[in-house]
Design a protein that fits this description.
Helix 1 runs antiparallel to helix 2 and helix 3 runs parallel beside helix 4. The protein is of the alpha+beta class. The chain contains 6 helices and 10 strands.
């Protein structure tokens, strides 16, 4: 007798797709089956695929426009900064440009993605961000070596990635500008690791001049350190400093990223 199976046939005259499921019993001389019209189901799947495609196009265009607008702001800050004579004012413009670039790079990665428009691969982002920082601050690669320790598969949603990116921007910028005043070269390490379910640690350290004893971020009125505290609070984080051997800043924070880490199934 015939093996049980699923068959697709076309109804006479209408071209509808139907599914036919043959029974498993082979006793007797006939076949009992169930036929159901799946035309509407097929139409729904096609409509869903089209809607998903349109959504992805809209998201890509949105991230592209945001990235372009932020790049314009960055360029304006760069042009304005070059026209200044006062070095303190120039440094302020460079710092603002770096912050804008940190946000622009988030949308650049999302725009370039072909599969996921909600999560940021942190290893790629942090590498690009640190390189961009050295360029903006005009720091020679031989003066400050960057060492990155980030899980290649680690990804965060846009909001968390933006906060972490701005934290790295402030901390690495501070090391690049102040850590190696008494030496011709040094190393800056950036690590991002998982310590528990939905708990992470960002650590930025350098082997430079270090910090005064008992230093805390709340004791410093500088904008960069105020931003560090504010950004850490946005991701339910705490900031700690260690200035005994160079400078190490550790941010323990929370992030929910199950969908990003497990991947996004878009198949239909």
């Amino acid at each position: 007798g015939a093996e049980p199976g699923v068959y697709k046939v076309t109804s006479c005259g209408e071209g509808s797709a139907v599914g036919c499921v043959q029974g498993t019993s082979h006793e007797g001389y006939g076949t009992v089956g169930v036929i159901r019209d799946i035309t509407e189901s097929r139409r729904n799947v096609t409509a869903l695929r089209q809607a998903l495609k349109e959504k992805e196009l809209l998201l890509r265009e949105m991230h592209h426009r945001i990235k372009n607008n932020l790049q314009v702001i960055s360029s304006l800050l760069s042009l304005q900064g070059r026209s200044l004579v006062d070095e303190t004012a120039k440094e302020m413009f460079r710092a603002s440009q770096a912050r804008v670039q940190a946000m622009a790079m988030i949308h650049e990665q999302l725009y370039s993605s072909s599969t996921n428009f909600s999560c940021i691969n942190m290893a790629r982002y942090i590498d690009d961000l640190c390189r961009q920082l050295a360029t903006i601050l005009d720091v020679a690669p031989t003066r400050a070596r960057l060492a990155l320790e980030v899980d290649e598969t680690l990804a965060f949603e846009v909001g968390t990635a933006t906060s972490v990116g701005l934290l790295i921007n402030e901390l690495v910028s501070n090391s690049l500008k102040h850590a190696f005043l008494n030496t011709s070269e040094g190393t800056i390490r950036v690590s991002l690791s998982v310590v528990a379910a939905d708990r992470f640690v960002l650590a930025v350290s350098d082997d430079g001049v270090g910090l005064p004893a008992e230093y805390t971020v709340r004791d410093d009125a500088a904008l960069g350190h105020t931003l560090v505290q504010t950004l850490a609070e946005q991701i339910d984080g705490t900031v700690s400093f260690d200035g005994s051997d160079g400078t190490t800043v550790r941010v323990d924070f929370a992030a929910e990223c199950d969908s990003c880490r497990s991947g996004d199934d878009r198949s239909l």
